[in-house]
Design a protein that fits this description.
Elements lengths: L13 H18 L1 E5 H20 L3 H11 L2 H14 L8 E8 L6 E7 L16 H7 L1 H8 L6
Antiparallel strand pairs: 1-3, 2-3
Helix pairs in contact: 1-2, 2-4, 3-4
């Protein structure tokens, strides 16, 4: 019987599960937001909180080595201790949030977003106004030249 056993197996053996969490944690540190299934997000959250707490407290060799157990990439460890950790110095915990997305179309698995609480979507680099493609095309000098020379021959 499975009484009082914590954690989900997620249909994987322990080494596969650890590799999954390491890869997802690396993606979370890199992109600050990942889309995954709800059970995976719920299992990854405490690991991510622990690693961010390491990056938040002190920048010691010991803390970096403990973080490297999960991240195993020097650049990610550096980013954790220089960018992500200092952002949360005033926060005593709860660095991540889980936002439910709904069922996945293929198999109906419940999807969720795991992201840092201070994550902001980057601004769109495209058009700033709500003008259409035709209006933008009219504005460009090449389009004005083409109109001035007359209609295109058929």
């Amino acid at each position: 019987m499975r009484h009082n056993k914590s954690g989900r197996k997620l249909g994987r053996v322990s080494e596969h599960r650890r590799a999954l969490f390491r890869n997802q944690l690396k993606s979370l540190i890199t992109h600050e937001r990942i889309i995954t299934t709800l059970p995976k997000a719920k299992e990854l959250r405490p690991i991510a909180e622990r690693v961010v707490t390491l990056g938040r407290r002190t920048d010691s060799v010991h803390a970096r080595r403990l973080a490297a157990r999960w991240l195993d990439d020097r650049d990610l460890v550096h980013r954790l201790f220089t960018e992500i950790g200092p952002r949360f110095t005033s926060r005593p915990g709860g660095y991540t949030r889980i936002v439910k997305l709904g069922p996945r179309r293929g198999d109906g698995a419940e999807l969720a977003i795991l992201e840092f609480v201070d994550f902001k979507l980057p601004e769109a680099k495209g058009k700033a106004t709500g003008e259409s493609k035709k209006e933008r095309k009219k504005r460009t000098p090449a389009a004005a030249k083409a109109e001035a020379s007359g209609p295109a021959p058929k």
